Amino acid sequence: MTLSKQAPLGIDPRIPWHSVLRCLSCRTGLRVVREELVCEVCAATYPIDRGIARFVPEDNYGNGFGYQWNRHRLTQLDSFSGVPVSHERVMKASGWTAEELRGKNLLECGSGAGRFTEVLCETGAVVTSFDISSAVHANAASNGRFPNLRLLQASIYDLPFDEESFDFLFCFGVIQHTPDVEGAFKTMFRYLRPGGSFCIDVYAAPIAYLHPRHLLRPLTKRIDPSRLYAIVEKTAPKLLPLSMALSAVPGVGPCLARLVPVANHRHLNLRNKKIIREWSVLDTFDWLAPRYERPQTRQRLQRWTEELGLREVSIERHRGVHVIRGIK
Length: 328
What we know:
This protein is α/β, with parallel strands linked by helices. A 7-stranded mixed beta sheet has the order 7-6-5-8-9-11-10, with helices on both faces. Helix 7 links the parallel strand 8 and strand 9. Helix 9 packs across helix 11.
């Protein structure tokens, strides 16, 4: 959560900003002592790192994501690209409107650099957003201007909140990169109130497994992020023209383009060539760097929603991604 001398982000200015946070050990309240949050009961401490409370070790499985999002803080933000790609994706996938979100408590699980955080904050929802990586600092730099934003660094498996305290749950581009996808999926719902709405996406199996990046990942995921990024930054712009040319072939273009291991966003109609190259470098790195990538089948997702007793569930596939939405 961002520390500010102004009104605390997303909280009534008469209420201490840290009052919604709970100790991970005993689930009781926390107080600010200099640059730490200290548990009022068990004396556990959590650092405040450059204004953001951190509830995970600094070194964790999300380090590669922290590297990429701090390098590409602005790349995918609609306010930077001038194209409402993120806005359209959120609203189309979720079916939510700004009117129903305004003033409601929304939990965003896994923010990255904040491309979706920006969209959600613009609706007027009180957005609590976290990431396991240092990407939260990129998000803070881009979206800290929103008075309705709360930011913190935490693990999806252990969050410092009261259960059933959010009206909406949103999670895009995250759970396939966690060590236990089922555990991540099910844990999130502990924090959504009964009757609350959710929208979550995950790479679709077997479609995602057929991509040639999976031939490279056993090697690339072991390379230091800075070294891998340098390789991708050099090779992706050279492969992109070939991928774009193949994707333009009538009928079979998208299938042919998949044979080239480079991210191609031709379908997004991005207008600026520099931004197109940046998106390609960013997403190619995003394919190759994560320690974990575990796409899921529709049948498995359906089983999880049934085990949780979720209602009005819809599972749709969009370009190799399953989008799951419904009501708790």
